[in-house]
């Protein structure tokens, strides 16, 4: 083997070795399927529709109650504003946490990307050094005076080297672009975090102002509130008001269930039709591919016959042996290049992860496909406080308790006892900031007297997730949580479901 051939072989071997090195995996992607994206969009649409229905229901409640004014009504605007601000602070905290985590991930990715750039630059430099050391070029191969067959092989190796260098340059350019994308995404996250912190400060200032306003109103209305708490018929009015709200909610829930069922049937029919069309298209594509392959096989047979005839006429054993060796090397090089190319993720795939927007806490969460399954025994209480009044016990102002009153510190987290959908989140006379969760199978849980509501109508909540903060709204004296369980509109003992 001549010096030129040896150098070419070394260069080609080094290039193939570099191509065989796997590119480190990019950022992990949380790929969302098309079906999941469609369900997410459907959930957001249903959430918006449910909120519109509950808004209309709230307006109807306000119209019915406008004829009677109570002292607690003066607190409504302030208590509602406090609830709204606290919910916004909760959302901002979640958004800040998500943005901070994303920024840390981006900064780690930038460090890793800089290391990867160093590897790519060294790879390219090694290829250039190897070719320079070999002294191989098209002109030196042609002017070497070697056997023409050997020159052909050397030029083939040189072609592999050139393609490998072009691939290395392309990879280097992609890595540089990805680094630029990562840095832009990191800058965007920093700007988002700064905006969140500014918004958080403004919301906290507004919260302090509203708390002062409420304290002033409480002091001013103290006498009126005390007098109204002693009214014997006030409790009946409050209970009737809540029962009407729950009755209206159940009608809305049933209407939404029927609409969702109709939508599911329509979607099933659409998917069946789409599947039929896809199957027909796939069959047509299969036939076309089979025909293409048959034609390719015929062409390959003709080409093979022509090559066999040429080899027979050549009648040179040494040339045939060398040609076989060259063909084997070419196949190995092509396979190595194909493996390296296949293992390298595209720039679009790797950059897509860093361009995924951060979703805030207001995003619609998907309910389970079959809906929620109601309540079961052994649930955790919404707050761990002392029981101040039990279901069915007498109330000082007359009547009986239809739920339980739990002692809880101001601002203590109130947690959903089971998974479900928020169907009411507003201020209601006699109950203050009120939140109602639908658990399916006609089971509802009621959380009243809250300082603030942390979830909105349409939000899907998990068991144990904080949905409100305990308080004393609606004209109550002490901070606590009033909790009810309703089944088919009727109140039932919560301790049938929650552990003591």
UniProtKB/TrEMBL annotation:
Enumerate composition-biased segments (Basic and acidic residues).
286-332, 347-358
Residues making up the signal peptide according to the UniProt record: 1-28
For this protein, the record's Gene3D superfamilies field holds: 6.10.250.3150, Glucose Permease (Domain IIA)
Entry's InterPro entries? Answer: Cell_wall_metabolism_enzyme, Dup_hybrid_motif, M23ase_b-sheet_dom
- The organism is Orrella dioscoreae
Domain of life, per UniProt, equals Bacteria
Q: Which keywords does this chain's UniProt record carry?
A: Coiled coil, Signal
* Keyword hit for Nucleotide-binding: no
Instruction: Spell out the Low complexity composition-biased ranges.
Output: 333-344
User: Disordered: where is this region?
Assistant: 286-378
The identity of this protein, by name, is Cell wall endopeptidase, family M23/M37
- From the record, what ranges are coiled-coil? 40-116
What are the residue boundaries of the M23ase beta-sheet core domain, all occurrences included? 401-494
GO terms assigned for molecular function: metalloendopeptidase activity
